């Protein structure tokens, strides 16, 4: 018989979002236990590139969350810097002649919303990225874009918060009292009692919600990343083609790829980004990897002579309107959601964690949570 644990907050999920929720809740003075059926960063976090982006977001609630998160990441980098491989390298979005006007309009809208976005003329692109293909019409540089090493960052955020961590422990039910209020979780290794439970279970966020008796339609979107052999630093920014923004916002289930290329502190170049809705099918897709390689060599011709060492696959958790669920669930008092961030969870984790911690400790969250409210997809309980 395992011992009954008690705390103020149970966070379900030891990925980046769960780690950030635990960090900021702990710093707000709450006693936190993080549970995960697998290891730290065992899900989407471990299969991501670690992007902290504002460049791909149009004005609106997600961009506000990204700007808040970016400021918080910069603060954490001051504490944890090298340990999480934080690199404030900036983003460069490039366009073919037919796409340049649309990119410049997009950037102008972002500027009005507080994003730093610098137009780059065609003849200046090679100053920023000497190995770029010729013939591009211009681009926009985003100095606020940055990167971390996701698995390292999640582990260090968990450590910095000092929350208790219980991995290899599966939540089988969210416990609710007679009046419907949450009172903890049941796991395969005993109950944990707490007046607040945070669902930070990523692609499994819908399943965790169901275990509390509420509906949250989180869907998985599969993505591949190609990793090259280690190289001297030739790609200085995160570089991608303007059509990437449209692909992220698309509702299509079909395979889409748009080239996203970046160097890493360790040397390999990471090549994304593909997205398709195929459920949780992990099988390797040669068409997806071929399309990624073709797109990357179109941007950086030198890559055609470079070996891809491996590819990896992950699932991005998304909700039908492409906004995450963040905040309290009125259908189950004491249940909070922090999931559905799609491919932006690493970047949006810090802001999400801060907002959740503010609500948990009875403060007014610094962003309006209305657009993120978890019950927006239908009020009915399961």
How would you spell out the order of helices and strands?
EEHEEHEHEHEEHEEEEEHEEHEEHEEEH
Query: What is the radius of gyration?
Result: 21 Å
Output mean pLDDT. Answer: 93
Low-confidence stretches: none
Number of strands: 20
Shape: globular
How much of the polypeptide forms β-strand, as a percent range?
25-35%
Strand-pairing-aware structural class: alpha/beta
Topology:
Layout: E1 5-6, E2 9-12, H1 16-27, E3 32-36, E4 51-52, H2 61-80, E5 91-95, H3 100-112, E6 118-121, H4 125-128, E7 138-142, E8 146-147, H5 150-161, E9 164-167, E10 171-176, E11 182-187, E12 190-193, E13 196-199, H6 205-211, E14 219-228, E15 238-241, H7 243-249, E16 256-263, E17 269-275, H8 286-299, E18 308-318, E19 325-328, E20 335-339, H9 345-360
Parallel strand pairs: 1-12, 2-3, 2-13, 3-9, 5-15, 13-20
Antiparallel strand pairs: 4-8, 5-7, 6-7, 10-11, 11-12, 14-17, 14-18, 15-16, 16-17, 19-20
Helix pairs in contact: 1-5, 1-9, 2-9
Key traits:
FAD/NAD-bd_sf; eight-stranded mixed beta sheet; 382 residues; six-stranded mixed beta sheet; alpha/beta; 27% strand
């Amino acid at each position: 018989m395992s011992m009954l644990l008690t705390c103020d907050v149970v966070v379900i999920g030891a990925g980046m979002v769960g780690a950030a929720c635990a960090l900021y809740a702990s710093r707000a003075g709450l006693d936190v236990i993080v549970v995960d059926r697998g290891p730290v960063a065992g899900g989407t976090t471990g299969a991501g590139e670690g992007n902290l982006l504002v460049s791909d977001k149009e004005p609106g609630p997600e961009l506000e969350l990204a700007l808040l998160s970016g400021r918080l990441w910069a603060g954490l980098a001051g504490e944890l810097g090298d340990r999480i491989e934080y690199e404030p390298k900036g983003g460069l979005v490039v366009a073919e002649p037919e796409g340049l006007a649309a990119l410049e309009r997009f950037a102008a809208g972002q500027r009005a919303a507080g994003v730093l976005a610098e137009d780059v003329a065609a003849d200046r692109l090679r100053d920023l990225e000497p190995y770029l293909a010729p013939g591009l019409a211009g681009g926009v540089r985003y100095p606020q874009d940055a990167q971390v090493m996701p698995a390292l960052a999640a582990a260090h955020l968990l450590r910095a918060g000092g929350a208790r961590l219980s991995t290899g422990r599966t939540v089988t039910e969210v416990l609710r009292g007679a009046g419907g209020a949450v009172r903890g979780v049941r796991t395969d290794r005993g109950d944990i009692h707490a007046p607040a439970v945070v669902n930070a279970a990523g692609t499994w966020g819908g399943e965790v919600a169901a275990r509390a008796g509420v509906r949250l339609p989180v869907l998985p979107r599969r993505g591949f990343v190609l990793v090259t052999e280690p190289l001297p630093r030739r790609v200085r920014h995160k570089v991608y083609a303007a059509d990437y923004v449209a692909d992220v916002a698309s509702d299509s289930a079909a395979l889409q790829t748009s080239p996203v290329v970046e160097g890493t502190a360790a040397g390999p170049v990471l090549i994304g980004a593909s997205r398709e809705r195929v459920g949780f099918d992990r099988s390797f897709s040669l068409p997806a990897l071929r399309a990624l390689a073709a797109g990357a060599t179109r941007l950086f011709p030198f890559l055609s002579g470079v070996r891809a060492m491996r590819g990896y696959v992950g699932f991005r958790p998304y909700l039908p309107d492409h906004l995450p669920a963040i905040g309290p669930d009125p259908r189950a008092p004491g249940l909070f959601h922090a999931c559905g961030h799609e491919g932006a969870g690493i970047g949006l984790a810090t802001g999400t964690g801060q907002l959740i911690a503010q609500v948990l400790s009875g403060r007014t969250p610094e962003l309006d949570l209305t657009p993120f409210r978890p019950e927006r997809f239908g009020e009915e309980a399961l």
